[in-house]
Amino acid sequence: MSIRIAVTGAAGRMGKTLIEAVANAPEAELTVAIERPDSSLIGVDAGELAGLGKNGVALVGDINTVLDDFDVLIDFTAPAATKLNAQACAKAGNKMVIGTTGFAAEQKGIVIDASEQTAVCMASNFSTGVNLCFKLLELAAQVLGEDSDIEIYEAHHRHKVDAPSGTALSMGEVVAKALGRDLEGVAVYGREGQTGVRDDKTIGFATVRAGDIVGDHTVIFAAQGERVEITHKASSRMSFARGAVRAACWLANKDRGLFDMQDVLGLKS
Ligand code: NAD
After folding, report:
1. Which residues neighbour 55 within 8 Å (Cβ) at sequence distance 6 or greater?
2. Using CA atoms, how far apart are residues 13 and 237, in angstroms rounded to an integer?
3. 135 is catalytic
4. Is 156 a catalytic residue?
5. Which of 30, 38, 221, 247 has the fewest CB atoms within 10 Å, measured from its CB?
6. Among 3.40.50.720, 3.40.50.2020, 1.20.1250.20, 3.30.200.20, what is the CATH number of 3-122+237-265?
7. Of 34, 64, 101, best ligand 1 pocket probe by most atoms within 8 Å of the beta carbon
8. Which residue, judged by its Cα, is nearest atom 18 of ligand 1?
């Protein structure tokens, strides 16, 4: 039996790519597509919107009217929307894959509460390559971290609304944890003017927003006389969408709990 998937934010950059990824996954079926209630696209066919031809799933504007029609919601929207969706899914027992980034602590708390009642897979990046990089970063931090200056560079398209990216923050968290540091205590999110010399323990972030860059991340470990750089470059949103659909299918035999893409890929040590 295939997993019934709902995609919310269906008209967004990720939403349209997710509709295509679900269409390409034999074990999954798109049964619901959701957009903002005030969207002019309500009623439009989701397959046509994604450029795939009609699939018979019309966009709806209220998740509460379709809770019986799907098993897993894939949500790449905005924090305020994801928070409300998490509350609705927790109440109805629908599972969730959450790719939205830029949560405030209170919004993230609502998602964590929801995972006590249903199964939630949440990740700042659903691509296999980035999740492999998280493992490589852990090793690099353990071997090089104490003797290196660590800097994280990320670049995204001009429409991205949060910075640094959720992926860059996750990379910082992986490195900080491997070194026994608290990211909030050591992160430097921007430099300007008379900054003074670099503090050894800090982890610096640099952000670029330009054009149509899908997502570049580099973590630099710069020691005396040598430098290691771990880089991931996304060239298509399909890498995130395929990972999210894989996560949705993986949730099938989970009743409740908070998971991430490392769980899905079996990368947790
Ligand atoms: P986008 O602006 O193109 O799409 C967001 C869509 O959500 C829009 O169509 C918008 O109308 C819709 N939306 C907003 N509120 C809604 C609501 N209440 N109900 C239904 N739909 C609603 O943005 P995007 O580039 O597709 O990115 C969306 C989110 O996914 C961002 O937070 C981004 O950072 C994140 N993202 C995560 C990953 C990952 O792998 N985790 C990858 C790419 C993007």
Report:
1. 19, 23, 30, 45, 46, 47, 48
2. 8
3. no
4. yes
5. 38
6. 3.40.50.720
7. 101
8. 81
pTM of structure: 0.91
Q: What are the tens digits of pLDDT across the range 94-151?
A: 999 999 999 999 999 999 999 999 999 999 999 999 999 999 999 999 999 999 999 9
- Ligand 1 atom nearest the C-alpha of 81 is 18
Q: What is the pLDDT of residues 224-251, one digit of tens each?
A: 999 999 999 999 999 999 999 999 999 9
Assign 1 a pLDDT band (cuts: 50, 70, 90): confident
Ligand 1 in reach of 164 Cβ (< 6 A): no
Q: Measured between alpha carbons, how far apart are the two ends of the chain, in Å?
A: 31
Quote the CATH superfamily of domain 128-234: Dihydrodipicolinate Reductase; domain 2 (3.30.360.10)
Does the Cβ of 82 fall within 6 Å of ligand 1?
Answer: no
